[in-house]
Amino acid sequence: TNMTLLSPTPSHFHMPQNSPKNKNVAVIGAGSAGLVTARELHREGHSVVVFERENQLGGTWVYTPATESDPIGIDPNREIAHSSLYLSLRVNLPRKVMGYRDYPFVAKKKPNRDPRRYPGHKEVLDYLKDFAVDFGLIGLVRFGMEVGHVGLLENGKWKVSSKKRENDVVFVHEEYDAVVICNGHYTEPRTADIPGLEVWPGKQIHSHNYRVPDPFRDQVVVLIGSAASATDISREIAEVAKEVHISSRSATSGVPLKLPGYDNVWQHSMIESVGIDGGVNFRDGSKVLADIILHCTGYKYHFPFLETNGIVTVDDNRVGPLYKHIFPPAFAPSLSFVGLPWKVIPFPLCELQSKWIAGILSGRISLPSKEDMNADIEAFYSSMEASCIPKRYTHNMDDYQFDYDDWLAAECGSPLSEEWRKQMYFISRKNKKTQPETYRDQWDDDDLIIQAHEDFVKYIP
Ligand code: FAD
User: Fold this and answer.
1) Of the residues 127, 183, 405, 431, which should be mutated to test ligand 1's pocket, given the most ligand atoms within 8 Å of the CB?
2) Between 20 and 30 A from 103 (CA), which of 47, 96, 205, 372?
3) Does NADP show up as a keyword for this record (predicted)?
4) In degrees rounded to 5, what are phi and psi of residue 389?
5) DSSP result, 230-276
6) Would you tell me how many other CB atoms lie within 10 Å of the CB of residue 289?
């Protein structure tokens, strides 16, 4: 018998037969993605264990002065420092935009909190701690436990092997009905491939290991990249360095341009090559004798613990094949990923992704057939190819994140994205571009702040 035929609810809200509603689920990581995933799974009635290799929650938002032994992060045996935060970091989204949808990130009248609209990083960690306490999540987390291996068993369950981080020998092996991967993707550095780097005599460092500007004092620095951290770090270093030369893909060729407002910062084209004499040769024909190359060139998706017999791969930073950036069809719904999209507002996006996963695991929401999911993925990849978008942009959602969020929200029966959040996001993005030094302290969208507060009233006791 087919229960869906008897069901009065819409076709995609049905209860599959023969499978218990409540699943045993392992969540890997207790950052902002893993925490909200734990909450959604728990709310849906699943049993949840969160594995977290650090001794505290928060992932990216746990600042550490420690850096890695290999400053460009190539040595596979290096001790990993998870977070890429630098000491001075302030968020790059207005806090009201940034927070989870039903747990507003508003200023709190408590000691040692940072009420600014674009607060420093510690305020985010404090917010995540509040979130974990308010939803009773701490008890679900196994701190100091690193997942070393995840693989499918013949009985359809997943074997999860974990160990105490400081103890490399004793593994705990367990079986789970499902695994949700929330391990973050700002830890494994990606560096530019530049001819001559192997003989170039200067120092190299990846922004993952950048904390404070002091080591750059009086140095001639070439900084590669133009994304968020490159913008912040280049300005911070300029205060102490002798010269800062920014090399970016986006800079047009032609002569190097002085950065407005600075007398020791230049914008260059991409690097052509570097030489044994310490020279850095740019495509625009200019050459600089530099002491340090700072790679602000982004990160790689990295799942060293995941064993899928080659079914799920990372190819030129495309994690695939994945339906809606979440489920590999071959293993859906028992294996899923939360938090892969970038150029997005991560907290609310992860909230919706995990709500959807939780509802699918309990059978309240259903997935299309494997064939239909694969066809959807194929169509997505083909459309990228037709538009000449490189593979490494697969999870870049820049212009369609709100469509994506709203698609998930509709699946979950949740409210769509708030109008103020969309507008505030686009305004802040524009301001960040046009006034990178001042956007965190000057704005003129107070009307949207008021709208956000009117909306938040229903969530703030
Ligand atoms: P993470 O926070 O990285 O958490 C992953 C967790 O998984 C970690 O705690 C890690 O220890 C754990 N883990 C990994 N592997 C294992 C394993 N094998 N076993 C057990 N545990 C494991 N976002 C914003 O919204 N606003 C901002 O202003 C902003 N600024 C940023 C600035 C920088 C420099 C960076 C790098 C990111 C910034 N982000 C910002 C994005 C930020 O990464 C996300 O906000 C978010 O914190 C990502 O959460 P996550 O849970 O996906 O990953």
Assistant:
1) 183
2) 47
3) yes
4) -90, 125
5) HHHHHHHHHTTSSEEEEE-SSS-SSS-EEPTT-SSEEEE--EEEE-T
6) 12
CA distance 53 to 167: 12
pLDDT one-digit tens code per residue, 396-413:
999 899 999 999 999 999
Whole-structure pTM over 0.90, yes or no? yes
Rounded Cα distance between 247 and 274, Å, is 13
d(CA 301, CA 190): 10
Centre of ligand 1 to C-alpha 454, Å, is 30
Residue nearest atom 33 in ligand 1 by C-alpha distance: 85
- pLDDT < 50: residue spans in the chain: 1-18
Please name the residue whose Cα sits nearest to atom 40 of ligand 1.
91
Query: Which letter, b or e, does each residue of 346-371 get, where b requires 16 or more Cβ atoms within 10 Å of its Cβ?
Result: bbbbbbbbbbbbbbbbbbbbbbeeee
Shortest-distance Cα residue to atom 27 of ligand 1: 91
What Å distances lie between residue 235 and 97, 283, 437, CA to CA? Answer: 25, 23, 8
Q: Is the CB of 30 under 6 A from ligand 1?
A: yes
Largest CA-CA distance found in the chain, in angstroms, rounded = 77
CB-ligand 1 contact for 28 (6 Å cutoff): yes
Give the tokens for residue 79: 């001790």
Would you call the peptide bond into 333 cis, given omega within 30 degrees of 0 as the criterion?
A: yes
Q: Do the strands 287-289 and 313-315 form a parallel or antiparallel pair, or are they unpaired?
A: unpaired
220-224 and 292-295: which strand pairing?
parallel
**Cβ burial 410-431 (10 Å sphere, 16+ → b, else e):** ebbebeebbebbbebbebbbeb
CA of 184 from ligand 1 middle (Å) equals 5
Q: Describe the strand order of the beta sheet including 287-289 as a list of residue ranges.
A: 271-274, 279-282, 287-289
From the CA of 31, how far away is ligand 1's center (Å)?
6
